[in-house]
Amino acid sequence: MRRAVDEGLPGDGPITADADGRPPSIIETHGLAKTYPGPIEAVLPLDMEIRAGEIYGLLGPNGAGKSTTIGMLTTRVVPTAGEARVGRVDIVRHPALAKQVIGVVPQTNTLDRQLTVFENLEFHGRYFGMPTKRARALTDELLDTIRLSERRHVPVMALSGGMAQRLMVARAIMHRPQILFLDEPTAGLDPQSRIALWEILLDLHRDGQTILLTTHYMEEADQLCDRVAIMDHGRILALDTPEGLKAGLGPDRIVTVSGTGDLESLASHLARVEGVTQTTVTADGVVLHANDAEGLLPRLIHAADGTGATVTDLHLAEPTLETVFINLTGKDLRE
After folding, report:
1. Distance (Å, whole) CA 253 – CA 73
2. How far apart, in whole angstroms, are the C-alpha atoms of residue 92 and residue 103?
């Protein structure tokens, strides 16, 4: 369905695997930075490498620099310093050429509301120089892929949010881009629409599509991404697979102990239990980290006796990306 990686890029030779057999780099940045008047350092010098065929997630609180990074890589924002190549195209020197190898799904709906679903895709294909017959055939193919064939003649204003988002994905990949950029693609969607879009993105991924996405949904990053970068204050704080990030947090398990009474005493006693590495008192209990789950819950219940607190519930869970995210970026609200 999409152009193979080894077809190459306009004006640049074929993209081949590295000597070690790994997929080739398809996005590279060196010292890429953006400073706005003020001065406001939106993105500090950034070195990034994304390999062909992977889904790369960019997580961060509001104002972390995610959208500015995406903006520079998609040529909408001119960098203050550094350099970047997207599909081996220099985004500063050759922005028009870079646009040929990328597809972008922005946060806002940019579909032409005066056109039908079919016309939006057909006209996009014609814009990229496709013959009419080819554009129409590809439109039919993509409408089937995004499950909108039955709504081909419906005005886009009549689409739900999830349908419109799927149509924007189809439009973004119609010209066979090397890289697909998605800026918070499921923001505001209901759970069913979000899952439907996940399935489409995973299908594209299986077909070899490189995807870079930003998201505030930790579950989304965990489910979709091969690697996740956590960004804050214009710099990348951590980069690894979702499993690697969670493993790097330290504890094997997180236990939430709900209770009433003297919670400080409860936390003090639980901290002495074998395997417990950290305890935190919350409004309705104690959250603790532990590196030994075997027999842990009975030991915790025994340790809670005589503390002046009553344990009402115990919940054992593995570390999540949300835990990693909060540990790195803090709990303060961002506007």
Report:
1. 38
2. 17
Q: pTM for this one?
A: 0.80
The Cα–Cα gap between 112 and 278 comes to 54
Give Dmax over CA atoms of the chain in angstroms: 80
pLDDT for 5: 36
User: Where is 239: in which H helix or E strand?
Assistant: strand 235-240
The separation between the first and the last C-alpha atoms of the chain, rounded to the nearest angstrom, is 41
Structure tokens at 288: 């603790």
Q: Is the dihedral of CA 147, 149, 151, 157 positive or negative?
A: positive
| Residues 6 or more apart whose Cβ sits within 8 Å of residue 251 | 277, 278, 289, 290, 291, 319
- What is the rounded CA–CA span in Å between residue 331 and residue 325? 9
For residue 128, list its beta bridge partners: none
Distance of CA 103 to the CA centre of its chain: 16
Which residues on neighbouring strands pair with residue 46, listed in sequence order? 32
Whether the per-residue pLDDT at 321 is higher than 50: the answer is yes
Average pLDDT value for residue range 36-60: 95
Least confident of 112-116, 214-218, 293-297: 293-297
The amino acid at 2: R
Q: Give residue-wise pLDDT tens across range 256-269.
A: 999 999 999 999 99
Q: How many CA atoms lie within 13 A of 27 on its CB side?
A: 26
